[in-house]
Amino acid sequence: MLESLVSLESMSLSSMDVSVLERLKWLQQQQQQVLSTTNASPELLQFHGTNNDELLQNTFSHFQMLGSGFGPNYSMGFGPSHEAMDGCISRTNSCQMDQADTVGVMLKNSEENITISLKNKRKSEVKTREEEKTEKKIKVEAETELNMKVKSNLSNTEASSETSKQKSKAASENQKLDYIHVRARRGQATDRHSLAERARREKISKKMKYLQDLVPGCNKVTGRAGMLDEIINYVQSLQRQVEFLSMKLAVLNPELELAMEDLSVKQFQAYFTNLPVVVASKPSLMVDAPLFPLDQQGSLDLSVINPNQATTIEAPSASWETQSQSLYNTSSLGFQY
Amino acid sequence: MERQIINKKKRVFSVEPNKIPPSEVFTRKYTRLLVPALKKLNMNKNSSQANQLTVKHEVDMALALSAQEFAWSRFLLQKLSSSNNPTTTTSSSSNGIRIQKRSGKEGGDEDGEIEEKMRELQKLLPGGEEMNVEEMLGEIGNYIKCLELQTIALKSIVEDTT
């Protein structure tokens, strides 16, 4: 496990020096020792808490020695996520959370940190790795926040001791439950399979929401089945339209040579009308620019008008001028077949 | 003068390619591919059926080539290149299937229904059957977008020639 941790670190923490890696290894060992000697009972959790405090203290001091490399992150980490963490944890405090919730809270925050600073996004074997990542994040960058929180919380109120306990519980949970990387909600099952299921379902529902925005008329229908129906209908109607248009084109093809020059103009007119309502775009297409007498030879060169503004195009020559100044690559789009 | 302008047009390069919205990129690619291809087509006055098929082929080809960043375009290209007779991946077959499913699944298992619909959707998407559900949902999104843009482009082409 340490080897994998090391390899992961070497890949992802390219900016950190070796000392940090060593420290992390040391931390890992420490926490494992701690874990092996305890189980999850409240009294022992305090032991966790203090132990972790020490660990965090040590790493904090080491971290300070790191210096400029983490300067910006360092200060950045404090502000927003500090509050976020506090908010989360106070919320969880009030709710009598179970273990998984603390895990969820910790992981959520650390995940945010990850997405901000580290840029690893590998999804395969993600579970162990993400877990390790979260641990690392907690230690390296979020640790300072944790430390602050732990310190400040301890100094503040009674409830905050609970907080630190929960935090340390969470930290130890990170060690135990290596494969959780999804926020577990209150009262829901926390075993591996259901969490994976939940993650999958959330991804799918996110995508369904996106599709809902894309397909017109999906908002009125509720439920997955109805939405899927709508989407299917829409895709089919689009495909039918394409087929119909291509049939029309097949009939008209001999006359294609004429009047192809203003194609680009009309295209961009169509953009600015409502996309799905293709029928409505017709009138706007009709009102368009006059025929350009320029390209009557066979060679079509549809270089593009700057699409920023074109409700009407004044003079053909002027528009061709703007086209030549517009910045689109025509040469790269060969006619590849 | 005209020749000058045409030459100027040909010397245009893109300075900031990343800032072009992808819908424009797609549509431009699409028309640039399709229109010349259609012109090159040897249109046979007699067999309209064959004409339609070849036109459809070109249309699909242009779609696939203009959207090469997506997975479904690869599948579409495969289908097009492998089959000499590139029938529609699209409407006729799926129409029938949809009607059947509609009638057959009334009081059934809800999850089963959703599964059925997902499978149908997969059939609509080129290469959809080889993807898993999540991936397919994502790909369907951009497939829809590209289809919309394609219809716009085709409409404008058709209108230009009428």
TrEMBL record, chain A:
Keywords associated with the record: DNA-binding, Nucleus, Transcription, Transcription regulation
PROSITE patterns on file: BHLH
Subcellular location: Nucleus
Main location: nucleus
Limits of the BHLH domain: 188-238
Residues of the signal peptide: none
Designated name of the protein: BHLH domain-containing protein
Species classification: Eukaryota, Viridiplantae, Streptophyta, Embryophyta, Tracheophyta
TrEMBL record, chain B:
This protein's record includes keyword Phosphoprotein: no
Residue span(s) of domain IBH1-like N-terminal: 24-83
GO CC annotation: nucleus
GO annotation, biological process: regulation of DNA-templated transcription
Alphabetical list of InterPro entries matching this protein: bHLH_AtIBH1-like, IBH1-like, IBH1_N
Primary location class: nucleus
Start and end residues of each stretch annotated as Disordered: 81-113
Keywords: Nucleus, Transcription, Transcription regulation
Subcellular location as annotated: Nucleus
Protein's UniProt keywords contain Nucleus: yes
Pfam families documented for this protein: IBH1_N
Annotated Low complexity bias: 81-95
PANTHER family assigned to the protein according to its UniProt record, in alphabetical order: TRANSCRIPTION FACTOR BHLH146, TRANSCRIPTION FACTOR IBH1-LIKE 1
Protein name: IBH1-like N-terminal domain-containing protein
